Amino acid sequence: MAQHDTPARTTLPAALRADVDASLAAVDADLARRYPGDPGTRQPVHTVYVPADVLDAGTVRSWGDRALAAMDAHAPGPAAFAAALGLPAGPAAEEVHGRVRAKLAREPVEDLRVDFEDGYGMRPDAEEDAAAVRAARLLAEAAAEGSGPFCAGIRIKCLEAASRSRGVRTLDLFLTALLDAGGGLPEGLRVTLPKVAYPEQVAAMVRLCAGFEEAAGLPAGRIGFEIQVETTQAVLGADGRATVARMIDAARGRCTGLHYGTFDYSAACGVGPAQQSPDHPAADHAKAVMQVAAAGTGVRLSDGSVNVLPTGTTAEVHAAWRLHHALVRRALHRAYHQGWDMHPGHLPTRYAAVYGFYREGLAGNGRRLAAYLARTSGGAVLDEPATARALAGHLLRGLDCGALDAAEVERASGLDRARLEALSGRGPAG
Questions:
Q1: Is residue 430 in a domain?
Q2: For residue 15, is it within any domain?
Q3: Which of 123, 126, 207 is nearest to 173 (CA)?
Q4: Is residue 302 classed as helix, strand or coil in its secondary structure?
Q5: Is residue 28 part of a domain?
Q6: Whole-number Å distance between alpha carbons of 208 and 157
């Protein structure tokens, strides 16, 4: 028998290997349960919060129209828009400008949250009851017509004692009215739970969701929710543990996102009003803890909002645009792919920052991915499989939001969308 045909010899007893497998079975199951990985679905680049009393059927279109009007008034044309943001003019700026305007005309809002919390305040019960039913009706109609954002829902009041009953009732009324509207719960439904401080509050939200599902005859697990991290106790508990990780666990698979609350959290840390911003060190610490806690769990992250509004004179609008653009870019570099937008004037800079980020990386990321698949160095970078998945995911995010087109991604990487999804883990392997 030739030497290369000789069976490979091992030393470890088969019984020992089997015993190791058995001893780690519980760990294997726990890893699979707690860390299922990214859900592989489209994530919105932002969430727009609109107080429940101002929501109407034309809200989304109005935001897009107002954003376009702001561009026309304060930066008419690609060169003027680039200059307003402190960016160089040229073909790249023209491409981004055109895509931003097309996005604002086609899909100005990707994720809409009807606010019953701070942006709405305390109202008479009858008024909030009517607003909850009305919000459900408007969102259901938009979903049925295909005119609404691909994600939409509500932010209820928190589960602290003073507002718990009101928050639970609003959630019940809203979900019930959605079902009464016909068509079931919309696919992109989002519910945001604010001011969470203890895992027990998350566990209570799980009980409410499960109870509604059972009473309404819905599949178990149909209703998920986002946790808003805006208390210091949500990041670091009195026991010295990272509470946000315990909250994800307490959600029992229902937590879909962690949203950072810029101003409540900053104020709780004693940060002065002028320094309350998503780039404050206190904010960076909180978001770093959130990021590590959520890694691998399938829970998405969202940065908070900016309270400097692009209003007033052209100089004031440009200053607010530059600030917002820089903060969005900063968040993207830190792997926060989503954030809050509180004013229509923030939409041009949201999309300009997002589109610029993905377009600047198109050629290099495509080249690196092609080199990885060809098993070549592709230059100065030798990528690992985890980075190849990230590269594919990065290109998919650019496709999802409209920053990139399928044809140019395929030219850069040699991969169509189906192969990118398979490589990123979104689609079937093959």
A1: no
A2: no
A3: 126
A4: strand
A5: no
A6: 14
Q: Amino acid identity, residue 174? A: F
Is the separation of the CB atoms in 154 and 170 below 8 Å? yes
Amino acid at 379: G
Residues 172 and 308 in one domain: yes
Distance of CA 340 to the CA centre of its chain: 9
> pLDDT tens for residues 14-61?
999 999 999 999 999 999 999 999 888 999 999 999 999 999 999 999
Q: Which two tokens stand for residue 46?
A: 């932002």
Confidence of residue 429 (pLDDT cuts 50, 70, 90): very low
Amino acid at site 72: D
Distance CA 75, CA 81 (A): 5
pLDDT at residue 424 above 90? no
The whole-model pTM stands at 0.93
Tens-digit pLDDT profile for residues 214-230: 999 999 999 999 999 99
Integer Cα distance of 154 and 119 in angstroms? 12
Q: What's the domain range around 119?
A: 46-358
What is the chain's mean pLDDT, rounded?
94
How many domains are there within the chain?
A: 2
Residues in the chain: 430
Angle ∠(132,133,136) on CA atoms, nearest 5: 90
